[in-house]
Amino acid sequence: MTQNDIDPKISQANGRLRSAKVGISIERKGDRLYLRGILPPKPNSQALNHYQQRLALNIHANPRGLKLAEAEARKVGALLDCKEFTWSPYSKQAFKSVTCGDWVEKFEKDYFVKRDRNPKTETTWRKNYYEVLKRLPVEEPLSIEILKNLLLSTKPDTRSRQNYAMVCNSLAKFANLNTNFSLYSGNYSPRKATPRDLPTDEAIQDCYHKISNPSWQWVYGVIATYGIRPHEVFYLDFEDLPIATVTDGKTGARRVWACYPEWIETFQIKNVCLPAVTGKANVNLGERVSKAFKRYGVPFAPYDLRHCWAVRSLEFGLDISLAAQQMGHSAKVHSDLYHHWISDRHHQKAYDLLMQRSDRPKPPSIRHD
Description:
The protein contains 15 helices and 6 strands. With 369 residues, it is mostly helical. It is elongated.
């Protein structure tokens, strides 16, 4: 767009400002936009009274810059009306990074300055942060109202609402916006999530034999036996069977024990047979596994096998802190996710095992006097 094209748009913006009685106008000098109005003397000025002055924004004379300049004119006008205008925001620092798009770009750079940029952190950024931030209006100036509207676009008391509140708070703090959205985060808890209809161990075992591809059959068996995350099947060491060592992945290295050591033979775990797939990040490897399950007719998701291992560990009486470590998360997450998933059949199984114990407590003997 040429300067001749932008000048009529500047006139239109100034018309809107006059109609709103803002008292500030926009003008162009070369390829830059400025504000002009009756402003207080600058610091160290000899002047005593307000007078006509120009305020440099360091904004390019283009449609995006004009939108920013008009918003800034309204802001300056409001500050003047409230007698709260100061020169400090305009004296030494340029008027930069005020749009949502600019702030997101700076926020991303800062995010990766504080942590190593690798497939893991990139996945976290993309799934937890960028999925939220990409919904901001790129060309609009960042404001508390815009962040609040984005946050309130989610359903209350959901995982999405909780994550949006976290991301909006992080960006607001980074941009020095004086607000806190924690009030809107809601009461989401994994305990409120609908429990999956988990397959029985018999169904898991039967399904293994119906997978026609040996590599994906092996992957299925490993996830069922050790309850690992789908992508972690590509980072395993079986040097200490029946223990599997996860060498990398979402939460790093750990060791996992098979709740059914018999499945090591049933699923031929020793005969390592990884499929020839690649993925830039762990999420990509996990997607390959999920798609393979669907392709070969597995009637449940890879994570269902992981959830079954978690519930099975409870049935076996494995201490919750140990089970959590083997699954690669905290004891609190383990409890929140899995304790409310135990159905009547799991309670009945645990009860039957308790009743079969030879050392279980017995009722008082009946005394006949």
